[in-house]
Amino acid sequence: MPYTTTSQQPVHNSGYIEYTDAFTRDGIIPSAGIRDYALCFDTLNGANPLVSFRFPTGNKLYQMTCLYIYKGEYRLNINGSVETLTEGMMITTMPDSVINPIYVSPDISYFMLVIYPKVVIETFKDLGMTYSTTKAAQRYFVSEIPDDQKPRLLSIYQEIKHDMLAPAYEYKEVYLRSLLNALFVENMNIHKHDLIQQEDGDCNSRQYDIYCRFLAALNKHSQEHRTVHYYANLLDISSKYLSFVCVSYSKKNASTWIDESVVKKAIVYMVVHNYTLNQISDLLNFQTISSFSRFFKRVTGETPKEYLRTHKNKETTTDSVAINDN
């Protein structure tokens, strides 16, 4: 069933207060999304949803939002303060923030992700963090985007949007969450890790910095590199220490993180893009189809062909729609 907006403003209950979902009002059409999971908004198709986002009393959000400005100017009132975002800036807002646009320049170019609470909580868990609504409420972060991170952010966003527009497939939600994790790690690096405060207060430690840098490197390089040694060298530490850090923060060692990242990419190539095993082997830098098949079976318990056969009856064959229900 396609995602549709409605004149009736849905009310959600987070457990302690009711919220109006400002992003499902008439006139605000996402570029892609999964209901109650995550929504994409951007100007890549000529639309400008921020213009439709004004509301007399402001918009109290229960979602987390990540807005990246590539061109133009956006001025907003957030929690009683006025912030101005210009080219190359971003803002991340946590739940409970009250937002109202003041000015949106005609030449603005941006993309924005709206991430619903259950996904935010899952992302924190994936990264081995404790999510506290009391600590996160009404916080927001404004930063300049380093030039070298701009293409990475856009690439991750476009992959999220592309996958949302694809037909449903097994593990689609898992793959999407891995992309959201990657985006969250990029945000943490840009905001100097301020987004997450661990209960024990060690989120600014060297180990935490290594962990974040490893996840960012994994998202970028796992298609070509699958050894712990490669990432340890990249981070200028030993392989043993890298695995120790990963287990400390996520209960998974570095090798497991790498294997899972490669398998997720392989599944997308197989299910979404319908690539041949030969193409996938080449894309993932395996010497032969046999070596790729052995790797896939070691991680998943099935060969690629068995995986496709086993899960074929679970796949949805409906046509791609602009926005899918979860």
Key features?
six-stranded antiparallel β-sheet; disordered C terminus; 326 residues; Arc Repressor Mutant, subunit A; 2 domains; alpha+beta; four-stranded antiparallel β-sheet; globular; single chain; Jelly Rolls
Could you characterize the architecture of this molecule?
It is a single chain. The chain is an alpha+beta fold. The chain folds into two domains: 1-161, Sandwich (Jelly Rolls), CATH 2.60.120; 205-318, Homeodomain-like (Arc Repressor Mutant, subunit A, Orthogonal Bundle). Helix content is 40%, strand content 18%. The protein has eleven helices and twelve strands. It has helices spanning 117-126, 133-136, 150-165, 172-190, 206-221, 228-235, 239-250, 254-271, 277-283, 289-300, 304-311; strands spanning 11-13, 18-20, 32-34, 38-42, 59-60, 64-71, 73-78, 81-86, 89-93, 98-104, 109-115, 140-144. The chain has a six-stranded antiparallel β-sheet. Strands 5-10-7-8 form a four-stranded antiparallel β-sheet, with no helix packed on it. The protein has a two-stranded antiparallel ribbon with strand order 1-2. Helix 3 packs antiparallel against helix 4 and helix 5 (206-221) packs across helix 7. The radius of gyration is 20 Å and the shape is globular. Mean pLDDT is 77; it is low at 1-19, 197-204 and 315-326.
